[in-house]
Write a structure and sequence with these properties.
Shape: globular
Number of strands: 26
Largest sheet: 9 strands, mixed
Structural class: alpha+beta
Strand order of the largest sheet: 7-6-5-10-11-13-12-14-15
Number of helices: 38
Helix content: 40-55%
Radius of gyration: 32 Å
Amino acid sequence: LALPALGSFLFSAAATGGLDACELENSDMLDAVRALAFTEENRVRRAVDYRNLQSEELGSVYESLLELHPELNVGERTFALDVAAGNERKTTGSYYTPDSLVQCLLDSALEPVLDRAATAKDPEAAILALKVCDPAVGSGHFLVAAAHRMAKRLAAVRTGDAEPAPDAVRAALRDVISRCMFGVDMNPMAVELCKVNLWLEALDPGRPLGFLDHHIQCGNALLGTTPELIADGIPDTAYKPIEGDDPEVAKAWKARNKTERQAAANDAGRGLLALMEGPALGDAVRGLEAEDDAEIGGVHRKEQRWQEIGGSESLRREQLLADAWCVAFVARKVEGEPPVTERLLERIRQGEELPKKLRASIEGNAAHYGLFHWHLAFPQVFGPDGGGFDVVLGNPPWERTSFEELQFFQNRNSHLYSALTTAERRRLIAELEESHDPLYDEYVAARRITDSTQHLATKSGLFRLTSVGRTDTYALFTELATLLISDLGLAGLVLPTGIATAIPLQSFWRAVFLAKRVKSLSDFENRAKYFPGVHNAKKFCLFTVGGSRLSFATTLFGFFLPQATASSIQDNSFPISAEEIERVNPDTGQPPIVPSRRDLELLIRVHRNAHCNGDQTPGWVGYTSAGTGDSWIPFNHVGEPSDSTATMMPLIEGKMVHQFDHRFATYELCSQADITRGEPAASDARRESPEFSVMPRFRVPRIAAGEFLDRKSGCRCVVPVYRDYTSATNERTLIATLLADGVPMQPLNGFSVNSAGEAATAVARLNSFAIDFVARLKTPDIHLNVTIFNQLPGSPLDYRRLEFAGLIGLDWITARVLELVYVSADMKPFARDLGYDGPPFVWDADRRFYIRAELDAAFFHLYGLSRDDVDYIMDTFPIVRRHDEAAHNEY
C-alpha cells in the first residue's frame, strides 16, 4: 500500500491479540464494511464521509459506543449490541462537551498562560515548556482544542506572522501535541480514542505517529496518593469497615497499624524514597521526550525507553509503595487476608521481597481500582521541588460517588428495577440472596467496589475540602485540579454551578475564593441543550481558578447567561469582590445568584441596614424531629383518624401553610386524587370560620414530637416557621407563618423567639417582598435550608423610622400581624400574649391584601430601598405581576 510506518500499539501485532487465530467469512466481512461505509436516512443511502471526520464527530461516536452493551447467547450462537439507555455513559460520566464551551474555557484559562509565555525571553521554548492536562480526558476534545490554540501561537512566534501559514501551524501542532498535552481516563477506550484524535490532528504526511503513551495514560485520576501522605503513614480512617468487611478484623488491623505507625514515626528516613527517586525518574522521562521521533526508529526508541522506565526496579518499588498505601483502604478486612499496615510499607521501603500472595493482592487491587499516582505517572511534571501543570482543562463526571442501586438493576433485572417501593426492592434482593442467584453476588461486588472507591477518595486526606456529605465526583475533580496546577497555573472546568453554591462545598469555595484565586464563573442553564442527556433546568458553569501565587482583586461572575460565546459572557458578566460577598453571605462566603450588578448592590444595601438572621436567632427546631415516614399514621380519606388520638399528634406539612396562614390547606374531605397528587386546598369560605382547623394526612407519635413540646424558648404560645421546599422561580420563595407551639411539622423549619412580639415581627419580615427578593437570589435549588436562612437579613437596625397613628415601629407591625394571624380560635394564646383580649378577626381577603401592602412598604422603607429600587424588585416577581393584572387589570 506504500504507507509509511505508523508506530504505536494501535497499529502493532499485539493490538489484535486473540483475533489473529480467528476466521471470518468474506460475506460477513462485506456486510461489516458495507455497514461502516454507508448510512441510511429517510430511506436514502449515502456514503459516510470519513475523509472529513473531525474530533467533534469522534467524541459523539465515543458517547454512542458507551451506550452499547453486548448480548451474547452461547446456546443459540447469537450476538447483538443493544442500547442500554446511556447507563455506562452515565456511570462513567462521559458527556461530550460542545465546542462553544471549550473555546470559552480556553479564553479564560489557556490564553493568559500563553500571553505570559509569549513575553518570555525565549517565547518558543516557553510555549513548548507549557504542560496542559485533562484529568478526565474522554475523547480528547479539550486537548485538541488547546493544541490548536498553542500551535497557532507557536507558529506565529517562529514565523513572525500574526496569521501563520497552514504548514507552519501543522508543524507546530505536532510539536505541541508531542510535548505539551497530557491526559488521564479510567476508560481504556477513551485513552485509545484520545490518542487517535491527537494523531489525526498532528498527522504530518510521510512521518510516523508521535509517541503518546507516556502522556495519555489510563487510571482513576481520583484514586491515588502523594509522597507527603505516604510519609505521614497509613491513617486510622483506612480501617473503617465497609461493605464485606469483618468489623472485628478491621478493628484489629487498625490497632496494629496505629502501633506500627507510632514506632515508624521516629525513623528519619521514612517516606523519603519518592523524594530521592523522583529526580531520577523525571530525568529519565525528560530524556525520552528529547528523543527525535520524526522517523519510525525514533518512535521505537521512545517505546523501548518507556518500557525500560516502567520496568525499572526504582519505579516498581515506588509504585508498590504507593499502591500498598492505597490498598490499606480498599483491601477486604476479613480473616485469612494478609493485613496491609504500616509495617508493610517499611518492608517495601527497605527492598524486602514480599510473599507472592501479598504482592499479588496489592497489585490485583491496584489494577482493579485503577490506582493512579500523579507523581509517578508524570515525574517530569511533579518533582521534589514542586511543579505542576500550567493549565488543567476538562469536563469531569458530574456523578455521585455513592452506589446507585436502581441504576445497577436497570439493565440486569427489569422486575426488580420496576419495584414501586424501597421495601419491595429490599424483599426482591433478599430473594436473590436466598436463591443463590449469581446476580446477588454481582450486586454485592458492585456495592463493595463503590464503597471502597468512595472510602479511598474521601478518607485518604487528599481531598480535604470536598470530601464531605454525599460526595460528588465533580467536586473531587475540582479540588484535584487546584492540586495539579502550578503556583502560576490556571484550571478551567465545566461544572455544575453547585461548585460555588452547594452548602457542603462552602469550605472549598471559601478556601479558593477568599484567597482571591477564582478568576471567573460563567453560569448557564441547560435549556439550550448543551448536554442532551441532562435536564433542562440543570445549572452548570465555566469555572476558572488560579494557582497559589495568583491573586485576582475581583472575580468575573455571570449568571443565567444567554449563550456560551465570548461576547455574551463579556457583555453579561460583572466583577464582584470577596469583601462584597462576605457582606451578603458571611457564613459561607458563597455567591448569591445575582443576574446583574444592580441586584448585588441592592443586596448589599439591604444587608447594611440589618444584621443577619444567624446573629439574632437564638435557637432552632429542626424539621426532621417529626420522625420518619415509617412512624406516621395516616388519616382516612374522610378525615377521621385511623389510630387513637391519645398517643398521636397531627403532622403539619409545608404545603399546608402559606404566608400569615396556618390553615392554607387541609386534607379533610379531599378526593383520593387530590391526596395522591398532594394538592389539598382550603377555600376562603372555610377560613372565614374561626372554628375551622386543617386536617392533615398523618399523625405522628407524641414521642416523635417531644422536641417540639419541650422547646426552651421565651415564647410558649407560637413558633414561627417557614417552608423548606421552595424555588427561586415560584410565585413567592420565602413562605412563613406561625404555628401553635408543640405542633410537629415536616418539612418546615421553625426557630426560637423570646416573645410573641418577636414572633410577629419575624414573620412579617420574612414574608416581605424585600426579604423575599434577597431569598430568591440566595436559594440555588429547591431547599431554603438553615444555612441560607441564617444569612438572610434579620431585623432592621432601627424600627423607630416607622411611626404611624401613634404606634412606633414594632407596635405598628405587630398590630397588623395580629390581624392577619389571629383569625382562628387556636391562635388565642398568641393574641393574649400581645395584649389583645378580643375575638378572632374576620378573614377578609381584600383587607388582608391592604394590610400586607402596608407591611411590604414598611420593610422596603426600613431596609433603605427607594421607589426606583422597589420598581426594580417588584419586576422580579413575574407570577405576582400576572396574578395582580388578572385580578385588578394593573400591577
